[in-house]
Structure formats: C-alpha cells, structure tokens
Design goal:
- The protein contains four helices and no strands.
- It is mainly alpha-helical and 68 residues long.
- The protein has one domain.
- α3 packs across α4.
Length: 68
C-alpha cells in the first residue's frame, strides 16, 4: 500500500459502511518499539537514555504525564 492508501485506509472503509478500530494493535507495537529503543540505549548510557529518549521527547510533544 502507498502512504496515501495507508493514510486514507480507515476513511475509505468508513465510506463503505465499515468501522475499523486499530488502536489495540498499534498500542502493542508502540510499547514494544519504545521498550526496545529505550533498553538498548539504557544499556549503553544509563539514565542519559531515559532523559534523551523519554523525557525530552515527552517535553517536546507536550505529554502531560511528564509532570506526573
């Protein structure tokens, strides 16, 4: 599928009367990805990895949880 096809996949299904909820699979893969990236970098640089790969990105994206 092209990037345009992927971007319009759900709206195209909706136009045919279908409902598609993809959040569970996306959340599963999202968690796996950040866990992999973080743990590899944490092994190399310790807490610096937490700041670089988690906290700074939370701050730049305006993630409320940063200030828990």
């Amino acid at each position: 599928m092209s990037e345009d096809d992927l971007e319009n996949f759900i709206p195209n299904l909706a136009s045919m009367g279908y409902c598609w909820q993809f959040i569970t699979l996306a959340g599963f893969h999202m968690g796996a990805l950040i866990s992999e990236v973080f743990t590899k970098n944490y092994q190399k640089t310790g807490m610096l990895a937490f700041v670089q790969h988690i906290q700074r990105k939370e701050k730049s994206e305006g993630v409320d949880q940063l200030l828990h």
